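Summary for the funding panel

The consortium committed to producing paired sequence-structure records for every protein in the target list. Below we show the first two records in order, beginning with the earlier of the two.
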Amino acid sequence: YDNHYAGGIGTFSQFSPKVKLIYIPNMSTRAYAYYGRLFVPVLVEQLRELTAAPGAVSQITQPVRGEYFEVGLTHSFTEALSGKVLGYYTQENPGMDNSTIPGTNIQTAVNIQQIYVRGVELGLNYDPVGPFSGYFNFAVSHAQGVGPTTGGFLPAQPTTTAFDLDHDQRITYS
């Protein structure tokens, strides 16, 4: 159970279960499924600076509430070489992102009505006996917001279409 109290803003709470099921068909293969209910409270540092900034309004930022799903498969090909494939999906209502208060360098958390993040990740890990090892990781991900941006002591910014979030990383690899 999550409970967050911030003076002057209020109390927010939520039941946040987390469940992970693991299936091990043999010693070298594992499959899993995970579900977690998200609750991320808002940081309230610099609250006086935010409310005194030009153009500030009294609308507060709500905590993130959402659901996270992940399924994955790992396999050890040899004692030194292993691989993984996983997929994930997050839906937040409301979601949270950062915005800059006009005329300042202050970053503040804002709500976006709905946030969706979807992705797939592939990885290989090579770890032989000895001083050298290596890995390769490839991911395709999409972070998208839908609905108005509110909170952060800023005026609401209505939107009519879905938009990519600033931390949207379509293709990453290392």
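The next record, for a separate protein in the list, is shown here:
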Amino acid sequence: ITAVKQSVSTLLATFFGWGVSALVVGGCVSGGGTGVLELHNGAVVTNKLLVGGYEGSIDPTKGSGNGGVWQFGGLMTALGSVNSHQFGGHLGLDADSHGGYEMHGGTFTALGAFQIGYYGSGVWSQYGGKAVFTNELGGTTARSHNVGGGNYGRGSLYLRGGRIDSHGALAINS
């Protein structure tokens, strides 16, 4: 998905890769790409989430992707998997990749580890709404959520309104 702008009542998006399905905003199998996703009241998205980066194995040589998500309402659920090391989502995966998430309302839930700036750069800006970073659906292993991780990952988290609940460690610049 190289460019998406959506504000319809229900959005179900699937991109095949990562060995499972994922919603990719600003990235592709061969690297590169720019994308935008906008969610409004009534929108529902449930899938793994990659915003900005290469949609395959972590490989800094695969190129860059730039993606942004703006959530004004609705429900975004980034899925992990039960008791595995798979992440629920990334903002900025791989070198030279940039991913951003700006939340003004609605609910965001990451079921599985959520990475903000993992090898690339990622920014989470929250002005309203509720974000929940939690364990995988039905899993028993606690996961950490990272702001700045991997080799040279750069992450920023801005909370200007709303609420963030983290179940498991929320590591800043780990």
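Regarding this second record: The longest strand covers residues 20-25. Confidence is low (pLDDT under 50) at residues 1-19.
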